[in-house]
Amino acid sequence: MEAVIFDLDGVLVDSETMWDEVRRAVAYEFHGTWRDESTRAMQGMSTPEWAAYLAHDLGVRLRPADVAQVVIERMARRYAERPPIIPGGPDVVREVAKDWPVAIASSSPPLLIKAFLDITRLPVPTAVSSEQVGAGKPAPDVYLKAAELLGVEPKNCAAVEDTTNGLRAALAAGMTVYAVPNPHFPPDPAVLQQTTVIEKITDLPAALQKG
Question: C or N: which end of the chain has fewer Cβ atoms within 10 Å?
Answer without folding.
Answer: C
